[in-house]
Amino acid sequence: MYEWLKAFHIIAVIAWMAGMLYLPRLFVYHCEADVGSTQSETFKVMERRLLRAIINPAMIATWVLGLWLAYSGGWFKAPWLHAKLLLVILMSGVHGVLSRHVKDFAADRRRKSQKFFRILNEVPTVLMILIVILVVVKPF
After folding, report:
1. How far from the centroid of its chain's Cα atoms is residue 139's Cα?
2. Is 139 helix (H, G, I), strand (E, B) or coil?
3. How far is CA 85 from the centre of its chain?
4. Cα–Cα dist 129/140, whole Å
5. Which of 42, 107, 117, 123 has the most crowded Cβ, counting Cβ within 10 A?
6. d(CA 63, CA 58)
7. 40-56 b/e (C-beta count within 10 Å ≥ 16 → b)
8. 0.85 cut: is pTM over it?
């Protein structure tokens, strides 16, 4: 059962990360679209569907399966897992920031620039790299 849980956890992580990497890129393009334009309205639909249909369920599955794996495997005492959990909490915070921006764009509030979203797009990548290193290498 543990191996099945791990497989589904990895699938959920891949889906979550795919969405977390794509959504800020949509925001970059959405910034270019005129408010009220057909293009802007299309981006609103894409962003909402990506968040609700892929990113949110994938994050929930990642957390549930990950905690289940940590419990089943007796990993809660491992220091590398504590570091990983901290990084996953940070990733969840980025998820929350992205969710806030979906709401802002839906209301035609554009508070940030393309440059901001280009930089924000790199944050999940860095967190993901660190998380994978912790899980695979288990440095401490």
Report:
1. 24
2. coil
3. 14
4. 17
5. 117
6. 9
7. beebbeebeebbeebbe
8. yes
